[in-house]
Amino acid sequence: MRFKAPWRPKHSNFDRSGGDAHASATRSSARNQQFLSYFLGQYGQRSTIPLASFLIAVAAGVGIGTLVHRAASEAATTLRLALALAAGVAGLVAIGRKLASDHARQRAAIALASGLLNANRDCLKVLDTDAKMLRVSEHGAALMEADSPEQLAGADWLNFWSGDERTAAEDAWRAALAGTSTSFTGSCPTTKGRTKWWNSTLSAVTDENGAVVALLCASEDVTQQCELLKALRERDQLMHEMESHVRLVFYSYSAHFEHFHHVSAGAEPVFGIKAHELITRPSAWLDLVLPEDLEPLLAEMHRIASAGVEGRSEYRIRRPDGCLRWIRSTAYPVRDESGNVVRIIGVSEDITSEQERLAALDRLAHTDGLTGLANRSALVRRMKTLCTQNVPFGLMFIDLDRFKVLNDTLGHTAADRLLQDIANTIQQALPSDACIARLGGDEFAVIISGETDKVALATLAQSLLNVFSCDVRKDNAAPFVTASIGISLFPEHGRDHEALLTSADIAMYAAKKGGRNGFRFADKASSDVLGDFELERSLPMALASEQFVLHFQGIHEPASLAVKGVEALVRWNHPTRGMVGPGSFIPILEESGFIVEVGAWVMDAALAQLAIWRAAGRRGLCMSVNVSARQLRDDTIVAVVDHALRKHALPPRCLEIELTESALMENPSLAQQTLMALKRLGVRIAIDDFGTGYSSLRYLADFSPDTVKIDRSFTAGLGRDAATASIIRGIIQMSHELGMQVTAEGVETEEQLRTLRDASCDHVQGYFLTKPMDAEHLVDACRSLVMRYGPSSLSLLATQRSD
Ligand code: C2E
Ligand code: MG
Ligand code: MG
């Protein structure tokens, strides 16, 4: 308890037995009569008529005023109550005067006033000049949770209050004594100890001389409003605290974004503008939006306002401190009961870090990790944009020549460094606005936006090729690099990125076919190589789909024509193109490195066939298998050969591995090592196509092969010119002196055969004898060959020769 209870202990002079409403109303009316009579009794002797009239008027006025006031608003203020009171008093004073002239009328007035008091919802009290409560209205007692008005009678009204409220009560009391009606709001406990809030108005009651004889106090119970207000204030405070501590701006805008009803404190950290500035100048934040983002933002605001739908915008602002920030604003329309949008509420947040993270992710997703250039998806995205906007552009597809070879010889780390150097070179050689991408491996692509002039693009491509061949060599160890470039144009060669990439790719392929280190524009001619191009694309599937087959060609003894050995020659049995020769796909297999797998398959299949033939009685038969440069660099070749020989239980000497000179020359030391390892296995080595490359007998001596195979282009010269015959004789002689055997390839005529036999060539191979064919047919072909040229025919040949 804040203070000692100012009311008297519970006792009653009134009948409290009645429980029904009627009895209660009667009792209440009687008490109001007493309340009024009290004044008349107390003050009537001194100023019978005027005072009585006044009191009646006041009481009735309070009643009427309160009724008016209640009807007007539940949340009426003290001022309104006072005005109502004054109006009531003024109006009824006249009535009172008239009533006062007549006792009967007086009683009627008392009854009326009593009725009005009954209707009054305030706690009405009459205080004496010492602030003692003389009487309390019936309803007032109920508001104070007293059992009856008597319980409160005699209590010191000032003692109800404490602290500041006590001071306010004393001020109001003193002011009322001085003749000024005063109001104040304060809380005091009821008789049950429950705190209630009151809006109290004190007015003086004066006699005919103007002396204050009593005070009338009307206290409106405003507990509900105060609690509501308190709850609202607390919520407001909570909101304010929350709003001030988050970097979010909560706002309430008018329905068409003309002015703000509310902007939270977050406006300052987010926009750099104080909330109150936005209230006074609602467009201040729009002034910060970057010009290029403003239009879409305004369009979205217009959409929200006109369609009454929720919306969201992301835009950049330049804050007053110069900082560039990303903002996301979300807005929701709020409608009234009729469905009209009455305001737009929303939230704005700083999403700069989110945008930065997204941008970093985007960069990561669209950047080539090795070179830092754009990647394929970034390139495609750029092309899509240009195609959509109908901006003409040139696309260059750049593929390094023989990069696979470089990759294998340099090792991956050095090759990666080389790719980085190449990326830099491309960047430096091209205009700064060119979009340069690495598509993977050694493939690069460039978009030259706005440029479709072929002369300009050709100049650019040529300058790129020029810098490749000189600039990329950062140190002496770096290899000489060339590239092939295919160029397609939008819209001439395609209307979408796929068509343009394919055209450029085909053009690049044509440039490669045309001898590498060059460029081609996409055109009809380069589209013609599409066949080869498609072939290349389907190559990786060929091995798994068992599309490779082996044909075999006999290697014959020149005198008896007996088959001493067989050369395995691979073919690609293409599902739609039929049998494809090795010349069309071996270079592609070599470039892609896929030759290693295919080569291993050839080795196994060839030796499997040899094992079958040997088991069928051809015990001395040998198998020649071609091995390319790329296979030679891969040290698994030794294991592959060893494994195949063991698997098919074949002596190593029955296998002859054919290597071209150029294969040996690509990396002589590595080739030498592998060669030695193969030789240690016991395998024979042949130098294939001798006479087409270096034709260096010095290297022959270094590699010391078992066999030299004279290329068919040489053989073709036999019979045409005497010099070729002399050279071939010289090669055979020198090879024999070095302990090597000689096989002549491409023997197509009897004359060539005879010349070779005369020159003591060890073996001959060519269409004149047997063509490459499948294993089954070869056996028949050899049989018929011997039958055709049997010993007699051969002797005939011999006779002719001796002639
Ligand atoms: P190569 O090793 O010099 O094989 C001989 C080529 O000459 C074969 O062509 C054969 O069909 C052809 N030929 C044989 N006799 C004559 C003739 O009298 N006249 C004419 N005009 N040509 C004749 P093919 O089968 O097209 O093979 C071409 C090249 O492909 C081979 O040349 C070889 O370097 C390569 N090759 C073939 N099979 C394989 C393989 O399994 N692995 C590797 N790495 N390369 C292979
Ligand atoms: Mg060969
Ligand atoms: Mg050959």
TrEMBL record:
Top-rank taxon:
Bacteria
Boundaries of each PAC domain copy? 178-234, 311-363
**Ranges of biased composition (kind: Basic residues):** 1-11
Ranges of residues in domain GGDEF? 391-524
Q: Which SUPFAM superfamilies match?
A: EAL domain-like, Nucleotide cyclase, PYP-like sensor domain (PAS domain)
Any idea where the EAL domain is?
Answer: 532-786
Q: Which UniProt keywords apply?
A: Membrane, Transmembrane, Transmembrane helix
UniProt-listed PROSITE patterns: EAL (PS50883), GGDEF (PS50887), PAC (PS50113), PAS (PS50112)
Stored InterPro entries = Biofilm_reg_signaling, EAL_dom, EAL_sf, GGDEF_dom, Nucleotide_cyclase, PAC, PAS, PAS-assoc_C
Name one matching Pfam family.
Answer: PAS_4
List all membrane-crossing ranges.
51-72, 78-96
- The segment(s) forming the PAS domain are 262-308
Region feature (Disordered): 1-26
Name assigned to this protein: EAL domain-containing protein
Q: Which organism is it from?
A: Paraburkholderia kirstenboschensis
Its ancestry begins with: Bacteria, Pseudomonadati, Pseudomonadota, Betaproteobacteria, Burkholderiales
